[in-house]
Amino acid sequence: MTVGHDAVPEEERRRLRCYLEAAVAVRPAPIHATVAFNAVYFGYDLGGDGYGGSPLSPDAFPVVSLGESAPVLPVGAMVCIATGSDPLFAEIVHKEGAHPALGPLGEVPAWVSGAPVGAGGPGRPTDATMPCRRERLVPDVHAFGPVLSLSSAQLLRLRTRRRWIDEDGHLVVDIRHPSPEEARRDDLTVYAEYLLTTARDQLLNPYVPVSLAELVGGTHDDDLRTGLLGLLDTVRGILHSSPALRTWGDYAMTRDRLAAGLRDSGPLGGDDLKSLVAAVEHAATPAKRRFGLTSAVTEYTAVGPRLRAFPGAADVLKGVGYAAAVFRGNLALADAVRGDSDHGLFENGSRITLDDAFEGGGIWRSYHPGAAEPARDPLVPTGRGWASSLAPTPSQVPEEQLEPEGDIEPVDVPLADDSDLGRGELLRDDAQAVVWRAPLRLAHLRGGWFPLPSEAVCELRRSIGRDAEIRLELDHAGRDSADTAGQAVAAELSGSRARLAGIAWPQDFFPGLMLDLRLPRGGVVVQLATTELDEPVRFGDRVTGHCFDPRVVTREDVPGSDRGGDTAVRLGPRALVLRTVRRCGLLTLDGHALQDRAALPRAAYGRRPARAQVAALMAAVVELFAERVLEPAVGSRDVWGQPHSPPRAGQPTIPLIAYRPAQQRVIRPWGGTDAGGGKPRTLHFVPGHLRRLRPGCSPSDVQRAAFREYCCRLGKADGWELPAGYTFVTEHTRGH
């Protein structure tokens, strides 16, 4: 399960699914994947005690106060709410943006929808290094059972006073994010970082049923992070695959509870949800003018505030009931879009799409006439509201960048000035051999050649004297390349560019692959080898198990470029944007690329594009931002018009488009098929764990000592002893 959902055998999935379905049924709020992970990992009792019997130490929970600022608190965080008297322990089960500009009927200014954390207004992203955002946190104050929960009377007094929690029993706080980049990470990644930092002692508690450190075989941060993300992916996959559950985002609710809510005729029941759908559907329907003329209208509606406008909704939205109501409201809108529209286009001519999944419980965009927009997945948030205040539209683009409508084909995009890109490195030049290293370039793949350094050229001239045929021996680590292991190539030593020509590169070679070459003294054989990584990694959309140069991969392993030639003319707007940013943007040492946003249209087409092409490119930018393939960034422009990043003092700031490929390990499933395609293994590794003893029994001294050693491996070497009534089962394998 540390590898991810797809690596788990079906029988293990079934057992986990059975427990999670029961946990979702007994919890009063929709269950987020992180909360479901808590239930499994820390041991949530379904009989009513919750986490009351778990190994958690509530006194170690971070303290949070209403109306104050706090570090990041993701869904799933366990907190202590300051009350001035008895502590109030809770688990955060829902969170959303609580922007002060949200209206009482769900009205939203366009720029708020999809705005980055800390945005100060239309088209004004924050320049703070630690941006802040107001968020509504919904705590489950009964998650720790009756022993650690306050009474109903105590909670009522706290809500009435509005000093420690608001009138709904929620926390509205200003959350400080470490950086703008980290503020854009997904919920599971944020929660994994939270557990590895703020709640590390909680995560590595030796009393949990099975410690993560045992599952991954150590306490190194990279191993813990990879294993934790795999576990979270497993839990999320189970929730999404259960036939008894409905999901919205990473939240899940039972179908039975949803059906009961639709049958309810009270506040926020089935009738009110139908009214919500109708209100969003008709929000952008324009009033007719004289002669039947209408104008285009765009409206944004936030689900959370809109639900409060229904009569009698106040009591339903208190406590965790708010999270359930927002879940049902979003799902009702999503079902209407799926069932009653054509990719969001309704019969009345309006197009309904989800624009922001976080702010206000979810912001939906209504646009009329909807047929004027291209059809795309209406349930993928695109942040068009914010983009409309930032990205230039055809009317905002300077006239010198526009030409009349027409067919203009993209041309090959010129590279930025990277004079040292792909430069080789001489490793050794002694009496035995000349050894050097260089990355493979796209031109090398296309032309079947590879450059020779001056030291190798001098040695070959001493050995063969002129252009001649020599032998190239290729060792592709970890791969069977028998057909290309040895081949005759031409050593072209004359002219301005000495090289090996006529090389048949293996099919899995790619631009940026690092090659080590060795030419023995007096020899006519060049030995070429790749270096295998300890584990495969994903860099952008490339997965490889060999060493590579990230700068060359970013620049040359782009959409529309392969060893057969460029196919940029056939690229759609999305691939064209991604190609342009990677090939023309400012390039960093770790393979990040940052493109001047204003220069994107001309760079993409190599000339002034048509208005429709500019609009298509900017719409693609918005989509790629929403999918986090690209990210917005800020730079500056000097007096010569050259962009810089980070921004330089005294220079005007400009918006940039950033390509930041995440380099991640790709873990092979333990117990999966081997490289030869053999049958899956049937042995199962069982980590060390606690087991309850029968009454009157006690653990042996051997098991007590084994548990102390186990605690030492977890970094808890401070005298931990077995809890009363338990023994320790050491790690072992089962099966055959």
Observed structural traits:
alpha+beta, 34 strands, 5 domains, 29% helix, 736 residues, At1g16640 B3 domain
Estimated structural class: alpha+beta
Strand order of the largest sheet: 13-14-19-20-16-17-18-15
Helix content: 25-40%
Task: Please give the alpha-carbon distance between the first and last residues.
Answer: 20 Å
Nutshell version of this structure?
The protein is an alpha+beta fold and 736 residues long. The chain is built from 21 helices and 34 strands.
Structural summary, described in words:
About 7% of the residues have low confidence. Helix 2 packs across helix 8 and helix 10 crosses helix 13. 29% of the residues lie in helices and 22% in strands. It has an eight-stranded mixed sheet with strand order 13-14-19-20-16-17-18-15. The chain has 736 residues and is an alpha+beta fold. The protein contains 21 helices and 34 strands. The two termini are 20 Å apart. The chain folds into five domains: 242 residues, no CATH class; 109 residues, no CATH class; 122 residues, At1g16640 B3 domain (Beta Barrel); 116 residues, no CATH class; 51 residues, no CATH class.
